[in-house]
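Lecture 7 notes: from sequence to structure.

We start with a single chain of 255 residues. Read the sequence below before looking at the structure.
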Amino acid sequence: MAKRFDNQTINQRVITIVAFIFALAYVFYCLIYWGGALASEEPMALLAIYILTPHFIATAVGCVLTALALFLGVSWWNLGAAFVYILGICFFPAYWFFLIVPCVLSFAAFFVMRKREKAAELPCEEAAEERAQKIADNRDQVVTALVDKADNEDYEKAPEQPSPAASVASAQEDELDAAAAAAKADTAKEAAEPAAPVCAAVTEVETVVEEQDAADTAKQAAQEATDKKAGSESATEVAFDEIVEESAADLEDKQ
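Now the structure, written as tokens:
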């Protein structure tokens, strides 16, 4: 973007202005002089223009680059213009005196403008470093605040740790409770020891009764089995007698 022109800007670019004036003057000279020769249509003039065409193109490009350096205020355009002027001199060394002045001035303008650009970049770099440091400090503060907040939340969520005195008192209470429970168990055991023989006698009597009931049950089952066997034998004998009687009756009828 083009910078605003003022007295300070003109003073800073005075070398570029002089180089641009010399280059532009030589461009106008080429247009007027060689344009008239081209209009004459002389063979020698046409041959000369054909030979000088690269020199003219380099001169025009160098003039354009010098104009860009002047209006944009960028030192690198001056450097490019100086190299293009050298290239133009190489294309036609006989006209070196036309381009040597803008070439030297372009180099001088480049070094002067570059030095001023570096001087102007220092405050910008310092401001950028200061801003980066401020951003880093703010970030550290935010991180520290977040860490403190997380620690506070963890402390609030964590259960309260008992004091040493409370721990000792709790341990003593546990020991007393354990001793009381042991004493109660011993008392119950001593009270249960006299009743042990009685329980054993009762258990023995129950066992004898159960054995007697089992014997009676077995005896009744045997008696029922004997009765069933006797009944079946009587029925067999009655059936045999009936068969014999029927056989005897049949024999009598036949006789």
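The first helix runs from residue 7 to 12. Keep this in mind for problem set 3.
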